[in-house]
Amino acid sequence: MLDGRYVADHLEQVRAGLGRRSEDAxxxxxxxxxxxxxxxxxxxxxxxxxxxRNAESQSMGQLAKAGDKAALEARRAELKVLSDExxxxxxxxxxxxxxxxERLLGVxxxxxxxxxxxxxxxxxxxxxTWGEAPAFDFEPRPHWDVGAAxxxxxxxxxxxxxxxxxxxxxxxxxxxxxxxxxxxxxLHTREHGYTEVYTPYLxxxxxxxxxxxxxxxxxxxxxxHRSDPDDPGALYLIPTAEVPVTNLHATEILEGxxxxxxxxxxxxxxxxxxxxxxxxxxxLIRQHQFDKVELVRFVQPEQALEELERLTSHAETVLQKLxxxxxxxxxxxxxLGFASQKTYDLEVWLPSQGAFREIxxxxxxGEFQARRAQIRYRDEAKGRPKLVATLNGSxxxxxxTLVAILxxxxxxxxxxxxxxxxxxxxxxxRIVPG
RNA sequence: GGAGACGUGACCGAGUGGUCGAAGGUGCAUGAUUGGAAAUCAUGUGUACCUGCAAGGGUACCGAGGGUUCGAAUCCCUCCGUCUCCGCCA
Length: 434
Known about the structure:
Layout: H1 4-9, H2 11-19, H3 23-27, H4 32-66, H5 69-105, E1 125-130, H6 143-150, E2 153-154, H7 156-162, E3 168-169, H8 171-191, E4 195-197, E5 202-203, H9 205-211, E6 236-237, H10 242-246, E7 253-255, E8 261-270, E9 289-299, H11 304-322, E10 326-330, E11 342-350, E12 355-364, H12 368-373, E13 376-378, E14 385-387, E15 389-397, H13 398-408, E16 416-417, H14 420-426, E17 430-431
Parallel strand pairs: 4-8, 7-13
Antiparallel strand pairs: 1-10, 2-3, 5-6, 8-9, 9-15, 10-11, 11-12, 12-15, 13-14, 16-17
Helix pairs in contact: 4-5, 6-13, 8-13, 8-14
The protein binds one RNA strand of 90 nucleotides through residues 5, 40, 43-44, 46-48, 50-51, 53-54, 56-58, 60-62, 64, 72, 75-80, 82-83, 232-233, 253, 380-382, 384-385.
């Protein structure tokens, strides 16, 4: 969420910044100016009357002691009128506050000035490419064929259980998934200084509001209910560990010297992917349930950008250690996620598609999430609490990593060579059919 | 699922209708004392918003939201959370 006061005072500037995303984004601020002005005016009149009521109510106590019943009654009737007036104003104010809040919650983050211009995927800037595409003396097969031939990947049975966009892993496939999770967690905790956390997979709406999924993107989520489908206390399945991990410190005031705080969490992720019909219908790329190891950092706002570089390099290290060919691009303003001020995508090479596909998305959110979730820090003992900046990135999407291994490491004989880094955990250097 | 207890500031803990943003203690900060430290003493120490160049002034907040009242941390209702016992369960 943007700072309401900043928005009110810099309306045109903010509108221009949001315009870099899209016209819709800029339009999300329409009539915000009037709303803010109305809010201010209401606060002023309400508080003036409240001050008067407080002063006069106090004198009532003394009047009561004096014992003049008639005077007391007369006074009480007068104050009743004032009190009713205040209640009316308070209601109006609450309503305006709600509208302001509602408006603000629907406004996306301002793109950072360093974010390239552009409207969509095509305008993203490729910054660097690592490694080389493996050369094949045969036609590389898609991972679903590789997996099926090895007997480790099964979509038909998953569909019998849960419908489309689910999968079952067997044998070395399941083990590879687990090995990848451990590998990533170990790497980030041992070499990159992250603290591992294990979180709930079901969260309240409040948490999703904190990170920005709600109220706008409810359709992408799985919502649970016990008996009443409209239960306001209903829990949602997390779409990413970003939600529980970032909200870990919601409403807290952190010690300035504790920053940066770095967490890594493995969780399954659940997405209803509304609106993705027809995209990536085959294979593991787009599933309702997938595993992800997520990196989250809480930092001082001035350091957000350099921290984003650091976070991105941590995610990249995973791909490098696995020897997977990938590239890094900076998302253009039009392709930025709702809450992000700047994002780097890591895209891994999929030979069967002859294309790079997203395997990690590393973003700085600036104070956007911290303002929603009220995550603050105090610099020195005396200083005012300030909002932190939050960052997160996949480190990595486990299912897509498994896809990349099956595709990049496939051999002519149908086997798959296991990257060095995973061989101990896999107990073998290759997955063979059978 | 059943029965009960409870939610006050960084923490502990008073406070059952009026001058309570809230006693007291601990912690923390600054100063005094000291060769230095401990101990001691003094002072200070919440958040948000409105207003003001500033100093300052004002309003709200005692789990959350409603209600009663001229006036609510204190009374009533709903919700959320925590704890204890029983049941069930991995």
